[in-house]
């Protein structure tokens, strides 16, 4: 399943991998990607399902869940860039892949053993189908006039989500026309939507502006795994006689993530709770904004370090210490500790309950879009500068200009994020603004779940 070993490619003609061997490699890589997509898009949503947020203690515990969840992910990443990198470089890549496979077998066993303890929520159909139907009916009924009052919309009084005026064009999907007059047709989702369905689609659309401003963060983050590692190969990585692998410098990124994730839980969130007198302390949008600021600072630090590194390398032919890369790892790592948790919490909390897994996928798509955007930017910049910025030999390029460009784009992106964040209404704010007053219980406001349950009960005529 692999080509014969090649001791020295300079002295002998190495035999390349044939089509069957390459096919085997790509099948393995895409299988890993498929499995990763399945895990990542469901594990965080499934984890949050284990908390009953109508219980104040569990509501408080769920806030910490997102931080602890990402803490564990970062531990795995830290293990990968230290122990696994060392094993792959000094023992063999097959051992690295074998250890990874073994840990996944253990993980599956642990997951199965915990099955009797889990809380399961039954699936209620694909959320994409609901979104498509509402958009289709809104377009189909675009020529109809709005009713004189929203109460005339289909199942207005039985809606589980309060009616809002945003994206009013979608309300046409819930207009009861001639075909929907009959009682049996009112329950046919392909003829007329309910107000609940329309409002859930509006919730998803409200996430898109924030989603779009999160992409650039991961474009900046991807530089820590690409160009920053490349920088390390042109720097002095010795500690005595031991040479640190360039890939292992990501250690500083992940150790910073672990540090700030712990600080968030132990110090920052408790302090913010005392100041704001809220359960969350720091809102998800505040976390994201903080992460964006750190990422811009990281690119500024990266540009300054690269300018110094290249100047000394070209003028004195000296390799400066690779530990000069620590500041950019530190700043971007701190940004990720805020941004990842903030984005995950935002997309899960702000999406409709039935669309939790889809909203997690929406969040994860910002990561993939960020990496795609990075590849696109590298290609465009390399073509526009004719290879002068991003040459294979960093000493002959101007990588710092690419970092400065990302910093400027980050500043612009941050102000766009601020504009969207200031206009965003959290779900509980939406209920309050629609006439649902928050009651204080033991000096604390009702949770989002309480508000949702209260609104739903009142809409159905319950006390």
Automatic annotation (TrEMBL):
Q: Any transmembrane segments, and where?
A: 69-88, 94-118, 203-221, 241-263, 284-305, 325-348, 360-381, 401-421
Protein name, entry field: Uncharacterized protein
Q: How does it sit in the membrane?
A: Multi-pass membrane protein
Location relative to the cell: Membrane
Native species: Ilex paraguariensis (yerba mate)
The UniProt entry, under SUPFAM superfamilies, shows: MFS general substrate transporter
Q: Which superkingdom heads the taxonomic lineage of this protein's source?
A: Eukaryota
Q: Does the keyword Lyase apply?
A: no
């Amino acid at each position: 399943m692999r080509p014969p070993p090649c001791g020295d490619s300079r002295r002998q003609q190495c035999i390349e991998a044939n089509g069957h061997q390459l096919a085997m490699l790509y099948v393995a890589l895409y299988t890993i990607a498929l499995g990763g997509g399945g895990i990542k898009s469901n594990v965080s949503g499934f984890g949050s399902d284990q908390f009953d947020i109508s219980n104040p203690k569990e509501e408080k515990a769920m806030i910490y869940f997102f931080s602890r969840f990402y803490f564990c992910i970062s531990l795995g990443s830290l293990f990968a860039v230290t122990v696994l990198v060392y094993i792959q470089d000094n023992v063999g890549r097959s051992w690295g892949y074998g250890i990874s496979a073994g840990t996944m077998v253990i993980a599956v066993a642990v997951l199965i053993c915990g099955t009797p303890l889990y809380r399961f929520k039954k699936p209620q159909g694909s959320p994409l189908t609901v979104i498509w139907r509402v958009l289709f009916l809104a377009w189909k009924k675009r020529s109809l006039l709005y009713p004189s009052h929203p109460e005339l919309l289909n199942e207005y009084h039985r809606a589980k989500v309060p009616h809002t005026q945003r994206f009013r064009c979608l309300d046409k999907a819930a207009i009861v026309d001639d075909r929907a007059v009959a009682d049996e047709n009112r329950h046919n989702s392909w003829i007329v939507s309910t107000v609940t369905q329309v409002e859930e689609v509006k919730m998803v659309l409200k996430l898109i502006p924030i989603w779009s401003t999160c992409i650039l963060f991961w474009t900046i983050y991807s530089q820590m795994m690409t160009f920053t590692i490349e920088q390390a190969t042109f720097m002095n990585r010795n500690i005595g006689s031991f040479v640190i692998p360039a890939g292992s410098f990501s250690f500083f990124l992940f150790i910073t993530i672990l540090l700030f994730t712990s600080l968030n839980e132990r110090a920052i969130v408790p302090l913010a709770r005392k100041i704001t007198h809220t359960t969350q302390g720091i809102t998800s949008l505040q976390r994201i904004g903080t992460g964006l600021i750190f990422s811009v600072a990281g690119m500024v630090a990266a540009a300054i370090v690269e300018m110094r590194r290249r100047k000394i390398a070209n003028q004195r032919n000296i390799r400066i210490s690779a530990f000069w890369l620590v500041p950019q790892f530190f700043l971007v790592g701190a940004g990720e500790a805020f941004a990842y948790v903030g984005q995950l919490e935002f997309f899960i909390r702000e999406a409709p309950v039935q669309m939790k897994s889809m909203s997690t996928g929406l969040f994860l798509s910002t990561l993939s879009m960020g990496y795609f955007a990075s590849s696109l930017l590298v290609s465009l910049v390399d073509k526009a500068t004719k290879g002068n910025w991003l040459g294979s030999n960093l000493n002959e390029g101007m990588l710092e200009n690419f970092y400065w460009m990302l910093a400027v784009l980050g500043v612009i992106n941050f102000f766009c994020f601020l504009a969207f964040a200031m206009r965003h209404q959290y779900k509980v704010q939406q209920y309050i603004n629609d006439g649902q007053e928050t009651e204080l219980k033991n000096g604390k406001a009702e949770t989002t779940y309480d508000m949702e349950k209260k609104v739903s009960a009142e809409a159905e005529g319950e006390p």
